């Protein structure tokens, strides 16, 4: 705050001094303007101050042809009101200075005589000082613009002192301030003394060239360096040489000795921007900075070059007034401030789209107009009519091919993604499936460079790091996804992305809740059925076991009762079960069954360690497959060896049950009710059942039934 107060105080002192200097000139109380285009001779009275010396003597719209005093007279020409830097040659500039000096000497007399177009004369006695109230508001705006541009440079220099670009922005801001103050000090009703006009013209040249050096150098080193320091200092050397050439009037440049250099400055800026655009790909913040530079600097520069600089270089009437063209420095300084401070760069996406739309629309109109008027000498009205007519046929195709192509990179709306998301979620059967669909949805809609899964959970979507990272809650569990680099690093995430992601999250979360509610209802109904089955069939099995005491049938009855209880338990639990612990129980049970059949069990487990938990539905499916295939092997084939293998590869679990083969080719097998039912259950779970016969060492064969179950 102390720094800001100091800067504002300094600006206030400068403003007071400049305004005091502007008022320290003779005052007529008249504002002049050039005659309409096509009319020659004299100046038009645009305004007469009611408190000025000319009040009641001159009237608005009167044409003044000449001005004189007791010793000399001068014809009033339009170029008396021109800015010093609009003259294309040094000879024209020096003639302008001589006319300014002569008119200033006449105005310094106590009595000034104006010759009117009707032949009459009017005598006015100028007052020694200007009235501050008579200074046009535009010149006060110039002072504010100069302070704004320089103030941005000072703030960046103070708060980003470690960046080389901050010093360049400060230099460019100082150059802008010098230029604006020079323009204000050139304010006159009609003329200023030669020495003062020449001095302010010199400071104006110094200020603009200082700005141009900073302008070019900024793009060379920021946001990423695309040129060495030698290039930066080389640009300074060239601008210094041009400055001395303008001040010392060594050599006239082609077309326009004061303006031609800025055409090359513009070309250099666009070339550097192309380099920056290329090197900042995959760097979202830096790429957004380049896009901001294009909007706030390149786009205004293109328009100024097209409608102001090019006509001047061609010796034509500019389409834009000199006064308005000077305001180009304001959006440029604004772009510097936002880009270096990196303030709200995530909004650049929308600004970029609007600026491209306007630039394409204006270019489609201005370029054909310039070609028709300046190259083919069409009348302006006819050229404008043809241009507008052609724009109807050109602009809309260009909009579809260019602007919509730019807009293609914008994030898709929630409405565009909902149908695809709902269709995918309709095929999900587990929370894991939904989580994978959610991951793919985020990847498809935002195309980030990377997606990381974090442990911190938030209820709402938000972005951080100036829009580099978008944090989206996980629909399953309590983590969150961190998406980095939207559209492969070409854009930053913004509020619109937050709204889209939040809408998709709420939709997915609602579907997940509905799925859980359906599963809970299904589980409740299954529990009721299983309990009824247990109470009825279980009671009968228990009675059978009690009646068969001491008989072999008792063991079968109790085994059937235990199987029923296990099935009821697995069918009614929602907990995740440890597969490693269950494999031990299944191995004991299978060994007992195999040994009763006078066979040998070969049990093998690969890649299934502790910590692998499965849902009760998956466990029930595995157990049913194991029991059914073992029963088939022991019942239908007289085998000496039974092979059971569990294997895990990535997110797939394989279960294989094989036996010594004395059967026909498995392709000729006809599946019974049990295996057919298991195959259907595996398919519904996303797996498959496969039967093969393979050769083993010693010349024998083994029949194998494989189950593939996704985890």
Describe the 3D structure.
This protein is an alpha+beta fold and 711 residues long. It has 20 helices and 17 strands. The strands form 4 sheets. Strands 1, 2, 3, 4, 5 and 6 form a 6-stranded antiparallel β-sheet that branches. Strands 12-14-15-17-16 form a 5-stranded mixed β-sheet, covered by helices on one side. Strand 8 (462-464) and strand 9 (469-473) form a beta hairpin. The longest helix is centred in the C-terminal third of the chain and has 53 residues, at 495-547. The protein is rod-shaped, with a radius of gyration of 43 Å. The protein starts with a helix and ends with a strand. The relative contact order is 0.05. Residues 408-412 have low confidence and may be disordered.
Q: Strands, helices and their partners?
A:
Elements: H1 2-23, E1 30-33, E2 43-48, E3 63-68, E4 73-75, H2 90-107, E5 112-116, E6 121-124, H3 137-159, H4 164-185, H5 194-221, H6 229-248, H7 260-279, H8 284-313, H9 322-325, H10 329-341, H11 348-375, H12 380-407, H13 414-425, H14 431-446, E7 450-454, E8 462-464, E9 469-473, E10 480-484, H15 486-489, H16 495-547, H17 552-572, E11 577-578, H18 579-596, E12 600-606, E13 613-614, H19 616-636, E14 641-649, E15 652-660, H20 673-684, E16 688-695, E17 701-710
Parallel strand pairs: 12-14
Antiparallel strand pairs: 1-2, 2-3, 3-4, 3-5, 5-6, 7-10, 8-9, 9-10, 11-13, 14-15, 15-17, 16-17
Helix pairs in contact: 1-3, 2-5, 3-4, 3-10, 4-5, 4-10, 5-6, 5-7, 7-8, 8-10, 8-11, 11-12, 13-14, 13-16, 14-16, 16-17, 17-19, 18-19, 19-20
